[in-house]
Design a protein that fits this description.
481 residues, alpha+beta, 10-stranded mixed sheet, two-stranded antiparallel ribbon, 16 helices, 20% strand
Length: 481
């Protein structure tokens, strides 16, 4: 099993090696808190089984009926919840945070896991899709997660998570016909999860000044800005609301129209189809006094915030023009600092990649478990596995010169040397990249000279095949000595 010796200071965002031979699974499980020690042992075994059978069903991972039945009982146990399962991982993330340097980005986002069931009410409804005349009501669960990453993009782990379902689907437009959403207290809205995750992750790390909470336009919530100020942490979100500014006689957009161009910046992003593109942005920024919504001015104070507008210089003919409007409590006094904030916001796509690993790699939406609680417990296990795959992929890109022992055991290194021969490219590659490319080759990576660094898909496929090979080698050694 893969060893989790964390990198030294030369690899930002990782702990130094403790010198023991504890596997990464044991480290992620060490601080777990369950009501019964037997549940903790079962969870550790399940984590190991799923790691060796990524993307497979529960029976395939468990291999026999006794283990499969025990797994089903674990997920259905009333004394097990997602917070219990992830408690050890949260603490391990905290240790990686403490061993890192500089600001850490806390990426927040929501995703849905949809399921087809004969009795959808046993899971819960999450929304509607399909033809507008005959919409299909979907059942499933929603997950709002906070992923901590370094400014180089290396994921340290999850810091907070929330699961929920909707008992009855109501669209935003339908709500607006009966009530003004701005008059509803934030505690009664789904968007309250943004505030809860901000508090939970900030409290976990205990160093709020190093945390920058990043979110898309869904996180443009004035209460979140005030909550960040209350707990002493920072935020950087993409805004969609043209708020009142200054003395209340004008808006942020009117102020920004008066700001002169501060510089240009080239950013690599992706279009609607996921293709990588280069975009040249015109940058403008300004510190403004931002006022709360009119209906909330008696509850919340005005805030001094920095607004950054980055608009694509040209109008592309084949896609929509990119325009980012960011708002943050951090100060920006130069073009370099504005570009830094843009680069930080560009990291937000990392959490979407993490969610993709859960769905495409771990096959979370293919589970046949019958209730929302059981599915939430299963997805929580997948979250740890998904983080590990993501960590391996990004570690290869950020610290290619590190020793392979940083992430692999001696047995895994020896196995890779035995089954994948070195090529001219691999012999000249940095130490860690050499072995990670060998893992990726097991997953279908061609390792041609023009190929980019391996991605998450080939990495998790390769790790699964490597685990199978190690198991086969162990069984053969026991049988033939």
């Amino acid at each position: 099993m893969t060893n989790s010796r964390m990198a030294s200071a030369s690899c930002p965002g990782h702990l130094s090696s403790s010198g023991d031979e504890q596997s990464w699974i044991e480290k992620e499980n060490a601080a777990c808190v369950f009501r019964d020690e037997r549940l903790k042992k079962r969870f550790r075994l399940l984590l190991e089984q799923f790691w060796g059978s990524m993307g497979q069903t529960i029976p395939f991972a468990c291999q026999d009926w006794a283990s499969t039945k025990a797994a089903y009982r674990f997920f259905a146990n009333d004394h097990v919840c997602e917070q219990d399962i992830l408690s050890g991982h949260f603490q391990a993330t905290n240790e990686r945070f403490a061993g890192s340097r500089g600001p850490i980005l806390i990426l927040q986002d929501t995703t849905t896991f949809s399921y087809q069931r004969d009795q959808p009410e046993r899971i819960g409804f999450i929304g509607k899709s399909g033809n507008l005349s005959k919409p299909l009501t979907q059942c499933g669960i929603l997950m709002h997660s906070s992923l901590a990453v370094t400014t180089e993009g290396v994921p340290l782990g999850l810091a907070a998570i929330k699961f929920w379902t909707r008992s009855k689907f109501k669209g935003c437009n339908a709500l607006k016909k009966t009530i003004n959403p701005t008059r509803v207290p934030i505690e009664e809205k789904e968007s309250y999860r943004w505030l809860e995750n901000l508090r939970q992750s900030t409290a976990l790390f205990g160093d709020p000044q190093r945390c920058i909470h990043i979110g898309d336009r869904e996180s443009d919530i004035y209460e979140l800005f005030c909550t960040a100020a209350d707990v002493g942490t920072h935020f950087l979100v993409r805004t969609c609301v043209d708020r009142l500014a200054g003395d209340g006689g004008h808006t942020i957009a009117q102020e920004m129209d008066e700001v002169r161009l501060k510089g240009l910046h080239r950013v690599q992003t992706s279009d609607e189809k996921g293709n990588a593109i280069d975009a040249i942005f015109e940058i403008r920024y300004r510190r403004s006094k931002v006022l709360p919504p009119i209906g909330k001015q008696s509850r919340y104070p005005a805030l001094s915030l920095t607004v950054i507008h980055a608009s694509e210089r040209d109008n592309p003919s084949n896609r929509k023009r990119i325009e980012w409007k960011l708002i943050t409590d951090l100060s920006v006094s130069s073009r370099r600092e504005a570009i830094e904030k843009l680069d930080w916001y560009a990291m937000r796509w990392k959490i979407e990649t993490f969610h993709k690993i859960l769905k495409s790699g771990c096959k979370a939406e293919e589970s046949r478990l019958r209730t929302a609680d059981r599915l939430a417990n299963l997805v929580s296990v997948f979250c740890i596995i998904g983080w590990r795959i993501f960590w391996l992929t990004m570690l290869n890109r950020s610290c290619p010169d590190a020793k392979p022992e940083l992430a692999l055991t001696d047995a895994e290194i020896a196995m890779l040397d035995r089954i994948i021969k070195n090529t001219k490219r691999s012999r000249s590659a940095p130490p860690l990249s050499r072995y990670f490319e060998k893992i990726a080759q097991l997953g279908g990576y061609l390792a041609r000279s023009s190929d980019p660094a391996p991605g998450n898909t080939v990495m998790w496929r390769g790790m699964r095949r490597l685990a199978d090979m190690q198991l086969g080698f162990s069984l053969a050694s026991e049988r033939y000595g």
